[in-house]
Amino acid sequence: MILKVVFIFLGVVCAVGLGRLVGGLTDVDVNEEGVQNALNFAISQHNLKTEDPFLRVKTGVVGVKKQIVSGIKYVITVNMTKTNCMKDGTPEMPYQCTFSVWSRPWLSDMQLLEPRDC
Ligand SMILES: *[C@@H]1O[C@H](CO)[C@@H](O)[C@H](O)[C@H]1NC(C)=O
């Protein structure tokens, strides 16, 4: 009986240890340092890559995860809307995006990873 408990306990310790080793995705707060930078970067890249002249803005952050991979990979799901700036500024056409941003601050490098799930 006691032996069984010890085995289960070891199993949990190993699983947690492995999780750290491979650097799984963990939930982080939207206000954590680095998240806003990554998010602003992703949205400006998203605006550069879209083919129409309408500005896209975020209307809400649904969730943020991060993973340590020779730097930090942020996976950010945001509600977006396509604005109609050329007319009266009324927001229209809401949609949701999940951006993956890879940040390596020591190289001043940030990249928006594909695929962008929008
Ligand atoms: C994002 O959009 C979904 C679907 O429209 C909505 O249910 C959810 O409340 C929104 N979340 C945020 C944080 O804006």
Automatic annotation (TrEMBL):
Signal peptide (UniProt feature, chain positions): 1-15
SUPFAM superfamilies found in the cross-reference section: Cystatin/monellin
CDD domains: CY
GO MF entry, a single one: cysteine-type endopeptidase inhibitor activity
Cellular component GO terms held in the UniProt record: cytoplasm; extracellular space; vesicle
Family the entry assigns: Belongs to the cystatin family.
The organism of origin for this protein: Hippocampus comes (Tiger tail seahorse)
Pfam families: Cystatin
Keyword NAD: no
Cystatin domain residues: 20-118
Record's protein name: Zgc:163030
Keywords: Disulfide bond, Signal
